Amino acid sequence: MRDAFQKNIRQYTMLFALVAIWVIFTVLTEGIFIRPGNLSNLFLQTMTVGVVAVGMTLVIVTGNIDLSVGSVAALAGAVGAYCQVRLGWDTAPALVAAVGCGLLIGLWHGFWIAYRMVPSFIVTLASMLIFRGAVLGVTGGTTIAPLSESFKALGQSYLDPIVSAAVGIIAILLFCFFDLRRRFRRVKYSFTVPSWPLQLLKLALGAAVMAAFFGILVFNEGVPYSVMLVLVLAVIFHFVSNHTVFGRHLYAIGGNADAAKLSGINNKKRILQLFTVFGGVTALGGLVLTSRLNAATTSAGQGMELDVIAAVVIGGTSLLGGEGTILGSLVGALIMASLDNGMSLLDTNITYQYVIKGLILLLAVWVDMATRKK
Known about the structure:
Elements: H1 2-7, H2 9-28, H3 36-61, H4 69-86, H5 91-115, H6 120-139, H7 149-156, H8 161-188, H9 196-218, H10 225-243, H11 245-255, H12 257-262, H13 267-293, H14 304-314, H15 326-345, H16 350-373
């Protein structure tokens, strides 16, 4: 058990930090923070950053970074809103146009990073400026609103409570099934596994957390569509990163790009593919943001890149590449949203909010560096 703890110290530190933050805010707000209504709102606050953080995890795993996500998300939202409000398109083609815009931008990034060898920091920093200007061009410097009910549904609508409960039960059963299957497979190949008491404790805690999560949502209108989107993306990206050749190649590139190339991996092709997909994911995040606001604004997404990168790093993904998990990034996004939510309930001065979030990010990077040295 001690070896397992030392091996996953960053993940445990992250979980302990989340619990500590919730306990502190619950005490300071006299229980308001932990009320189901506030927690449901907290989960909604997490979703916009959560969508993009899922994709950013694999970008950082490869040793790259994307500073343009705020501008790209804003542009995708503006394109979707423009197509619907100004051009009169139906919701479906408007959403497709927005995601297509994100995919093209991702392809643009991948070309410069993979085939022209320009550092991702520079490419995406330039794109942050370029596409923020494009947002002003698409919107004409004004707010595009209102959106149709079907467009707003992405960020404002909920599954029926009964359907939400069924989704929660299925999710818990799948979690238990796949965790046990993983154990039996490891035993089959003579790999080490935790003792049965520890295994059952892990299953019980995981099921309890999931039951609490879905229970809170069920008793507050149901599971939001945006939460379902994040969960689906998380499952897909978790599967890709852990059970596909593409995912293994990305981790290999992040661990040692030269060794990956010598082993036969086409690094350039993989980076191009990754950034293209990530552009589409960022566009989805922009659509969630736009639908929640019921408008496309010129300032949408400003500062998003900092929140997303902070969430991924706090979640245990190494800025040096080669290490990181999708679940960790989602917990990191929840930590960031919890800080915002709790400090807002306490009416904390915005100055101190930025200072506190910055210090927590610095601490997370320090923990990453310290544990890697060990």
